[in-house]
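ESCALATION

Customer reports they have been waiting on this structure for their group meeting. Please prioritize. Original submission:
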Amino acid sequence: MQQPGTAKNIWQVILASSAGTLIEWYDFYIFGSLSAIISEKFFPPSNPELAYIATLATFAVGFIVRPFGAIVFGRLGDLVGRKYTFLLTLLIMGGSTFAIGLIPSYHTIGVLAPMLVLILRLLQGLALGGEYGGAATYVAEHSPDHRRGYFTSFIQTTATLGLFVSLAVILITRSVMTPENFNSYGWRIPFLLSVVLVLMSYYIRIRLQESPLFIQMKQEGKTSANPIKESFGNRENLKLVLIALFGAAMGQGVVWYTGQFYALSFLQKTMNIEFVQSNIIIAVALLLGTPLFIYFGSLSDRIGRKKIMMAGMLIAALAYYPIYKTMDTIGDVKQKTEQTNLYRIESSQAKNESGQFVQHTTRIHSYTDGSILKESDTKKELTVDNTHMAILILLIFIQVVFVTMVYAPIAAFLVELFPTRIRYTSMSLPYHIGNGVFGGLLPTISTILVAKTGNHLAGLIYPIAVAVICFIIGMIAIREKSGKLSV
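Update from on-call: job pushed to the front of the queue and completed.
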């Protein structure tokens, strides 16, 4: 058996794999981070609420097609190799993201704008469906058995760091220009910048060697002739795929997206927290929580993957309602005392999509707790005081802790579940159905539930139910592995 790489080599593998995966997540999440603005640019302006839901649905499409990308690129990875497959996915993702930054607005090209966005989101989803399985498998097959959870946890940080970097780039871009210019053209800059990051990552990855386990398997003539049939046509392996999906991946998916993307959507669309402040809240919470991926990944090497993942799902399901209830209360101006003597009205002019100057009237309400609400004809923006901002960061951070518990061990768990010859294909599909379908649809489903019921907390029904179901199945069906990779 060819041994995993040396200590120096494993860190080179982790750096190259993580850098590329981080950039792919950055590309993927720029769209979600800017969804409020994208809904205004690429969809009909007559119904803003419907446009936002349509934007979330377009965002979700990228998740829904991820399982198809997992099948296509997973098969390619098991036939050709891990390295070249995730080089290809990196280029597809980077090209699609760059192209979104070039699409003219709905005002300019009409219905063609959302159609082009949808096509590019499909390409992004397909690429990401092939990326994660390749990177996780590549790192895992270079890792020693007793530290696989630790080393693969660095790959697990990239999804959250990708979101963090996307928020940071957006905030920096917003800070160096006026709100009007950012809303007009500045929002395109984060999309266009991705091409530079992708080329840098491609240069790093192209210099890597293939996975040692895959090389050995290929030399011995043991590669699978039909990874898809062997993964899903074999009853025993299909059973493992279903356990991976319904006992781990679907619960992990909803916890991941609730703690990060739904949290951002809740801040911006339900609580109406001001754009910059809401992004800072999420970014700080992510920065504080990211080291816990490494901690829980390492801990899973010592006490097992199952205990940590199941605990994260259960605690999250129990904690979501009180957490979001507290958040909702902070954003409810009806429960605040207004300082009527500070009420004022401001008028300004700004260009619309036609280049015409439009008069805007903003009503500004100040409250005794330091919050300020700005109301215009089209939107509301609430800026909370520093104390409430700190509380919101803490509440999001707690959710990120749940994310790290369910997400840090899952790469090692999935890799150890399947044999090398069909590992890329077998692990990619349940992971991307769990994350792409169950997790990716969460913002859209939850937003629709809130819109239909008028209850700000109704959106939690979906993630809580999925997390509880997954916890029950996982506790019954999952058996801890020895930590060794099967060939």
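Sent to customer with the following note: The chain has 21 helices and four strands.
Escalation resolved.
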